[in-house]
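User: Fold this; tokens only.

Assistant: Input:
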Amino acid sequence: MVIYWGGFHMPLGLGGLVIVANLFPQHVSDPQFQAMSQVVLQLMELAGTAWLMKSTLQPLKSQFELFNVSFSKAFQDRDWIPASALGLLVVLLIVMASASITHLSLLQVKEAPSALTGLVTSTPVACSATYLAFCVVTPVIEEYVYRGFLLASLASHIRWPFAIIVSSLMFAISHLGASGLPSLFMIGCVLGLAYTWTGNLATSFVIHGLYNAIVLTRSVVF
């Protein structure tokens, strides 16, 4: 996790656009360039994370069979569509409850990065690339790391409720500078429960992606 945070997440996921702006100052005002840069940075983080997991977990391959993503058998018992629908509903209820308690708006509970929201309203290409980065690639990375790896590895040593709590805390802390960290922690718990219930990363990925899409769309519309 330290290597992932220091080698991939912080320089690419959090500071990637700053690096791009320094390398290509002549293109920094082009929204399409910024949006495509965000996609490339996220894909680089995903590729680096996949390499890190594969290289470090190869000796323990038999212990990590829960890296399972399946979109088949969607409506059977404990499958991803009903679990995703219920999980997304719970996440939205948590966000609304947190907003009412703390007097924050939905955007302040989990705020879409301003660098992304500005791109959505610029050009169709920039809008599409921004949604791809924020609602597809980012959920894939975070579910792969915090549920597929961290939660599964912790659950092999401690009871699964505590594994969900610890992995959710790490998930919330990783959103450096984000407001509403308690809500992010609770969202992480819902994602962890959904993954534990189905044994399928597709469940938590769908919940995460749809929620990010709702947050991003709301930040633009309102």
